Fold this protein.
Amino acid sequence: MTAPASTSDTTLGNNSHAARWPGRDRRPVRVRIAPSPTGDPHVGTAYIALFNYVFAKKHGGQFILRIEDTDQTRSTLASEEAILRALRWIGLQWDEGPDCGGPFGPYRQSERTAIYQQHSQALVDKGAAYRCFCSAERLEASRRARMAEGKSPGYDRLCRYLTKEEVSARLAAGDKYVIRLAMPLTGETRFFDGLRGDIVIDNATIDDQVLLKSDGFPTYHLANVVDDHLMQVSHVIRAEEWIISTPKHIQLYLAFGWEPPAFLHMPLLRNPDRSKISKRKNPVSLDYYRDAGFFPEALLNFLSLMGFAFGGDREKFTLAEMIEVFDWTKVSAGEPVFDLQKLTWLNGLYLHEMTPETLLTRLRAWRLSDEYLLKLIPLEKERIERMDQFIPAASFFLTGDLDYTGIISSLIPKNRDQLQTSQALSDLTDFLEEQVRHGWTHEALEKACRDFCEKTGWKTKELFMPIRIAVTGRAASPPLFETMVAIGKDLTRRRLRLAAQALLTYSAPVPAGTPAAAPATKSPPPAKPNKSS
RNA sequence: GGCCCCAUAGUCUAGCGGUUAGGACGUCGGCCUCUCACGCCGAAAACGCGGGUUCAAGUCCCGCUGGGGUCACCA
């Protein structure tokens, strides 16, 4: 096949100020949120969905939900369901999606594979893409060699220059292949970002991206471009991490002969240390925020504050009010740190203005539902003798974060130090993230915790107590794994991480002569929600 | 490391050439009050550095520094 060696620059958009975005685009507004169902519903998904939603509603357009489940090894239906549930919880209802359909379905990419295969084939026929037969091993070796030469580690384009005969031979031999985009080798690709203006990237720095994997599934890049076009998406509003691959997408649109949409990249939400928000450093699951007692409207309001300024020093507002005043000049490209404390304050504002009846309704929809209490009663029933003991006994089931101040020393087993314990708790949380991603059941948890001990050399006897205290705040509790199930995945992990963190920053008060403080394990103070942190 | 993005207090932000640099979270102090909380009042706290342009720069330009992202048959 011949490689098209385009030397012309590719320019999209113009130099108009970001204020005019979408500017010249006269198409009806159609935007989408396109989560990948490979984990818990992510706060970043809600953040991007929010701005898409607001923009769509502002312009009377449609907001589409598309499931990007093209990674067969990681995508699950359970994750997809959790994401839909979480987006509904937070109050961003889509107009078209896998559950409600729409004129451009299906909205689940795994059901569109024929479309992608057909489109990638068309590109091959045109000479804009080519088959690559390189093995993973060869790719790896080539990458290493290029690194050693000081070049960028991309694909060396070996198969781009295969002759027709060679390709036919490999095909006839039944060799596995992927389809790659033949990027222009020279020139530059320029596009207009709605928040930053023109962005220019040298074509020579862009890899020949894989479009179709050897399993016949598309990569994000292909599926995303094909679907955005077929679903008539007018504006692509997504996270900043996609800026670098936008030129690949533009070249794809051009290869197909399509007009690209307008692009705008939102800043990434940050951990307190300013890295991209991640579960190790900040709770990221929307389910955590729900279980920890945050109101969806408060979380949404808070998320909008991450970059958006309402005007007039106003910080508390509804979605409808935001839509009313919204435009992109009020959105900044800065990199916002997600601050749980301020979210908590804002949530308090919402709570304080509720009538008692409303709050009661909310509480009943939360942890005071029959459904939830019925999970706790079997666990506590045999441990109490009078009804009045139930609520104190079950308090840690009804709270969000725990405060370990005062009980930290009880977390550390004999013959272990605080650092080791902290590390174990933190590693265990990572381990659970991997091993119990799906099916948060007591059997799975017990197995994972035992496996973890086996792997790390901790005895179950010494590790299970710190786990128990981290999860419940007490040394005495109902069976550990059933308790973890009732409390839920997100709150459990959060408490484990908080305890690990508390251990890390704990400086043991060893005042000589002072009698050792009574371990908090004897008469546990009722767990208090930890306002800070 | 290459490429790209970002840059006002610890944090979220207002500011779009002339301001005592405004608001909010958090922190500290006070008032209110039977306690706590809420509420109210007040305080400390910022334009990363260096060059330009201009009568005048937080605001425009360049460089540096710092932070981040990205370099997958993951999205």
Q: What stands out?
A: Chain A has 20 helices and ten strands. The beta strands of chain A are 10-11, 30-33, 62-65, 129-132, 178-181, 188-193, 197-202, 210-212, 235-239, 262-266. The mean pLDDT of chain A is 90.
